[in-house]
Amino acid sequence: MMAPILEVQNLVKKYGDFTAVKGISFDIKEGEIFSLLGPNGAGKTTTISVLSTLYTATGGSATIGGHSVFAEPMTVRQIIGIVPQELALYDDLTARENLSFWGQMYNLSGKTLATRINEVLEQIGLTDKANQRVKTYSGGMKRRVNIGVGLLHRPRLLFMDEPTVGIDPQSRRAILDSVKELNRQGMTVLYTTHYMEEAQELSDRVGIIDHGELIALGTQAELKSQVGQNETLVLAVAETDDPQILADKLKTVPGVLKADVIDHTITTITPDAQGIISPTILLANQLGIKINAIDIQEPNLEAVFLHLTGRALRD
Ligand SMILES: Nc1ncnc2c1ncn2[C@@H]1O[C@H](COP(=O)(O)OP(=O)(O)O)[C@@H](O)[C@H]1O
Ligand SMILES: [Mg+2]
User: How remote is the CA of residue 267 from the centroid of ligand 2, in Å?
Assistant: First the structure.
């Protein structure tokens, strides 16, 4: 077992009277991709901001590479790279100039900096566009420059805060692939997201965060086993019909443990998905609700969140 590069114990962060992070504990092993998965407002950005020394903690302890985040912030900053949720780029500068600016902030200069910028431009796939102004870039390209800034000083641990929010599917694909490639080359990553698909694709381990608490922590297999031996039956309801009416009725069917609505789908958790298909169709017919598709799925991280909170991950 690899040693942890990051260890967090009972971390608390208050904003005035409001407690945004309520005593969370987890560690990240060298070489891992660890995801913090949780809905908007769960406390992901607050956690990352405290761990990256941007905000002070209210309580608890955290070490990175064996150094206290709170007592030795300057040392910790050398070890970590930060890709914040908000872009910090100058639109009138080129990608190369932006990287140069941030590189100097990290005390890089001269030939070392020039070489490093070229390497990073390769890593983020922007070598060809490096001399164009950032204002001509797509949202996804800007995101990639943002990632490049986080990589300049060769961090051992990269913090990425929802790096795919608000960009097109193609750029999202490029970013997810580059996270995997960086990890393959040895980078440890703390990745936050509210998209369970991303956590599923990337993570070795996942912490599920909700209302400032870590409500589950483990490998994906460990988390999915929390849903038990249950199966997930997913019903796609016609857009013109109200799925909630059917979901409420389904909750009264024997064997249905949960039936929750997300958009026009009903996700049902049950020990016997096959066995509840007939009663489901019967109920839908009685209520005059049209089901467009029925699918039996293995429990995914969305089902885990639903199981633990009774709510959907997305707003
Ligand atoms: N600077 C702040 N002052 C007061 N409350 C804040 C501040 N930043 C975040 N919050 C609140 O803390 C909670 C967690 O926010 P945040 O860490 O941004 O969550 P996430 O990144 O998971 O969406 C939210 O309820 C948010 O409104
Ligand atoms: Mg956030």
Answer: 26
Query: Is the minimum distance from the CB of 193 to ligand 1 under 6 angstroms?
Result: no
Q: What is the rounded average pLDDT of the residues 86-101? A: 94
Strands 188-193 and 157-161: parallel
Nearest ligand for residue 46 CA: 1
34-68 pLDDT, tens digit each: 999 999 999 999 999 999 999 999 999 999 999 99
Check if 90 has its Cβ closer than 6 Å to any atom of ligand 1.
Answer: no
Atom of ligand 1 nearest to the CA of 48: 17
Percent of the chain with pLDDT over 70: 99
Q: Residue 307's pLDDT is what?
A: 83
Q: What is the pLDDT of residues 25-36, one digit of tens each?
A: 999 999 999 999
**Same-domain status, 111 and 124:** yes
The rounded Å distance from CA 43 to ligand 1 centre is 6
**Residues 267 and 145 placed together within one structural domain of the fold:** no
Tell how strand 205-210 and strand 59-64 pair up. unpaired
Write the residue with the smallest CA distance to atom 2 of ligand 1: 15
Burial of 25 (0-12, 13-18, 19+ CB in 10 A): middle
The pLDDT, as a whole number, for residue 30 is 96
As for how many domains the chain has, the answer is 2
Measured from the CB, is residue 13 less than 6 Å from ligand 1? no
Q: What is the CATH number of the domain that holds 262?
A: 3.30.70.100
Whole-prediction pTM: 0.86
Backbone angles phi, psi at 140, to 5 degrees: -65, -40
- Which ligand lies nearest the alpha carbon of 161? 2
* Angstrom distance (rounded) from CA 201 to CA 46: 24
